Amino acid sequence: MVDIELMDDLKVERKNCQYHPVGGIGGEGGDGWITNVTVLVDEFNVEYESQVIFTRLHSQIILLGQKDFFRKFRVDFEGSKGVFRIRKVPKLEI
Q1: Which listed residue, of 6, 54, 71, 94, carries a Cα 20 to 30 Å from 61's Cα?
Q2: Domain residue spans in the chain?
Q3: What single string gives the DSSP state of each residue in 35-89?
Q4: Burial bucket for residue 50 (CB in 10 Å: 0-12, 13-18, 19+)
Q5: CA dist 36 to 1, 18, 86, Å?
């Protein structure tokens, strides 16, 4: 999910997105608009297409949660140790 305020910065027009209601913790809901965007993870020089829901986020700008992101990256978060690490997942060869 990405805050709706970034739609203009990313040059995403709401009229080109599909309406998608969203729910939150505690049952709060809101309006969302879903579309595909190109995501660039600069550190790894990786670019990929992912679905994003633009909605009103009150406490942050972006929430991780796109399934495509977690297919390409491993995220480690250990709050008590102050660790937040993103690592590229190696491509499997079959």
Answers
A1: 71
A2: 2-63
A3: EEEEEEEGGGTEEEEEEEEEE--SS-SB----HHHHHHEEEEEEGGGTEEEEEEP
A4: middle
A5: 12, 10, 22
Which residues, including other chains, have CB under 8 Å from residue 54's CB and lie 6 or more apart? 1, 2, 3, 4, 6, 7, 12, 14, 17, 32, 33, 34, 35
Give the number of C-alpha atoms closer than 13 A to the C-alpha of residue 59, restricted to the C-beta side: 3
What does the pLDDT look like over 31-90, one tens digit per residue?
999 998 887 777 777 777 878 888 887 666 565 555 667 777 777 767 677 666 777 777
